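User: Fold both of these, please.

Assistant: Here is the first one.
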Amino acid sequence: MRARIGTRRRTVALAAVAALGAGLLAGCADDGDGGGSDSPNSGGGKGKTTITLGLFGTFGFKEAGLYDEYMKLNPNIVIKENVVERNENYYPALVNHLTTNSGLMDIQGVEVGNIAEVVGTQSSKLLDLSKYGKQADYLEWKWKQATTADGQTVGLGTDVGPMAICYRTDLFKAAGLPTDREEVAKLWAGDWQKFVETGRTYQKKAPKGTTFMDSPGGLINAILSSETERFYDASGKVVYKENPAVKAAFDLTAAAAEDGLVGNQTQFQPAWDTTIANSKFAAMSCPPWMLGYIKGKSKPESAGKWDVAQAPKSGNWGGSFLAVPKAGKNTEEAAKLAAWLTAPAQQSKLFAVQGSFPSTPGAYTSAEVTGAKNDMTGDAPIGTIFAEAAKNSPVQVIGPKDQIIQQGLTDNGVILVAQGKSPKEAWETAVKTIDNNLDQ
């Protein structure tokens, strides 16, 4: 459920959660103690073991009642969480605590954009959770993201963000495009170039004042989410400038921007929010958590006018992990809790309440997933659609500074084309910004 290309995006996406009709997603937690202490089962009495979790944003375990359920099953356990709202405040402190082996919670959350750095630099400080979680329960690519070359698994996957395309059926109809989700998916199946061509078809008869897609950042992010290798190669070398897939994604997005197929706003900024409220675009790249954001920013009359189709190629945007520091006070009990919280049965419950899409395929046949609906997309079988995308997403190479590179390409790159710069100028600006931030 986390908007994990940039932590800024993750947090604002979570803030919109009030939204989904079947309870997909809930709002951000405040900084500070998210408190298991209010629970009737968390008295911390004599002889009980307290397990602490350090998290960011809203993982949803407390909100979904999972802590209370675990404490009922294990009366000797008390669970407390400490939540920092924004990952950019949480993660540097986590690295410092791991480096000094002090100030650590029994369980620590790790965002997908940071997992490669944690695997590469902090694995010696973390418990091997392959002895607790079952590898066969998780998506193969999710398990690999948190596993070292020598087979140590430092984190168990909570959620993922399988990518689909959300679209407005009323705007598609007005532009002469099909509205049935199966027919819509056929328009661009297997090729992002076909997706952009669909946008050109849309713009020919587009309702006045609308664009095909919401933003250039949303388009390039969707394209790159479906690539196995993006910014780093398998050896850990930064290759975004040399990787033809990155330049191709940039060029295709820039062409769409030059032709007026995408809006000229940066995602998750107030001006972009207004384009949702005023129905100014017809389609957007859409992981499950985005549905909550859409509803949170839409006017009531938009309910039921959205649908969801498979993306041209499967990809992923979002996800997190639970890790257990060796320096924690209760490593054995913490590892058991981490494995339980991320097991298929609990991930199904979390999806039903919070919209965190499971990283465990065993959950995809559960009633909570197959029967999921939300107000914005009516009867669309969103659980089944997102499950298909999750199963087909590539095993992606993730580097320690993926977020910096991604944000440079979106917020200092393709957006400039939509605002009047040439693709060449936009690429050069993005590269300069990224390399400065990488100290290259």
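And the second sequence with its predicted structure:
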Amino acid sequence: MNNTWNKIIYKVGSTFYDKFFNTGIFLKTRKRIFQKAPFQSNQKILYVGIGTGADLELINYGDFDITAIDYSPDMLAKAKRKFEHSSIEFLEMDAQNMTFEDESFDYIVASLILSVVPDENKCFGEMIRVLKKDGRILIFDKFAAKNQKLTLTKKLLRPFISILGTDIGRSFEVLFSKNKHRLNILKDDQVMLRGMYRYIEVIKVN
């Protein structure tokens, strides 16, 4: 997985992304998570890896100050077309190297992004950097099971699945441990496919 390959993968994926990830169990789960997001009108919200804008469709986006970034110009173009009459600012940007100032946002939504970027540690670190103190990161993604080693099947499948632009073996616990002095976990729920997908909410304390 690298940026160049991801652009190729998501150029192709942009043509069918909504048909798979914005329907069925994915849509049901996303509705359950994001329609209850506690955003307020005076807060700045950043969507990291917005894709085709599927998560934006679930909120009253006109009520908020929203910036949305994605590294794939093809995915971003889909999102822009959906919300062309909105005030949402769409930017083509690498989530591993954001150009925003420190502590720019009150909320960050990280939906299905930490499992697809080449370096999840850099991406998570950037989210923390641009998040205000007492701000929150809302994470919906797939992670390896807590305190369990990957099964042999997953170990064998992992390199092949990564060719499709996603990693099934990343550990949130490892990711969090490198930043635990700056964050507290407010919520960690298993939400889909027997806990493979989790909804995690963290707050920046330092």
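The chain has a mean pLDDT of 94.
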